[in-house]
Amino acid sequence: MRISFLRNAAAWLGAGTAFVSLALSAPCAVAGSEYLSRPDVRSFIEAMQTEHALDLAELERVLGEARHQPTVVRLIGPERPKTSTPPVRSYPRYRAKFLTNLRIAAGARYWDRHEEYLRRAEAEFGVPAEVILGILGVETAFGQNTGSFRVVDSLATIAFDGPRRQEYFRDELKELLLLARDLNIDPLAIKGSYAGAMGLPQFMPSSYRRYAVDFDQDQAIDLIGSPADAIGSVASYLKAYGWNEGEPATVTVKLPAGSEADLVTGLERAHDVAELQGRGVKFSSSKLPEGLCSVVELPAPGKPSKYVAGFGNFEAVTRYNRSTFYATAVLELADAIRVARTRQMTARAETKSGP
Ligand SMILES: [Ca+2]
User: What's the CA-to-centroid distance between 217 and ligand 1, angstroms?
Assistant: First the structure.
């Protein structure tokens, strides 16, 4: 893919100051690097050079400029010791962060603004508009919080200094450098979250390379500057992880008293519907998708937990972020946005037809 650097750089950079620091720092970047002298970084560079034919001087420039970010280490946090008591989990507390009136209204507005692409994404990938909006809403409040870390810094910090999942982040750093090459942009210009997730849908570099699509057909895949590309890419991602058009993602269930510990499987789809029914589980709907389901607990401290059966589409959303709370909140935000949108359309139709 050929794309002009300047136009893309502008989309990626966002803040004007980044341009200045980029221009000033590039020529003398290698001197004084904290990473370049380290043997693990040298062997990373060597692998990128031999396995992917990236230019040595360019690799040294980028990694020479990369900076260790203590904030990233703090935010990623240490592994929880296996012996410690898990913190009290509360789905309502989690949900409250995302299911706000502001975010729901922003979702309905976003739908209005980008209806054409949402409709096309539905048609091409079978993923409903509101689910795409649920993801964009939870991830970045529709582009409001896409992250201000330099992704090279985030990924290099975790890849080379931990505190955990170093291998995964080393792979993502590799993918970032390859992505920058694919897109013909400077990796140092790419901004994202403390964990290296980028743009409106917060794709990690590997997902960006694998699933992102150029949905507005301007010959650039831009998840930061193009809502169309973000919309198409979220749908493409969910489809790749098994989204099935027209199926419910979850169905509320009632578990027989005392069987909760046996039946709850969280992320894992380990149950057959007939088997669960045989064990006395009541499904709130008779329209159930084919295939296995998980049983998910939504705990609320001081109240009885709620439970849902998660089917293939629920799993697709958890592939975006491995958390049952996350997927449930995405789907609830999606529903709330659809309700708000329908109400808006009805009100408009009434205004149009007059008293
Ligand atoms: Ca595009």
Answer: 5
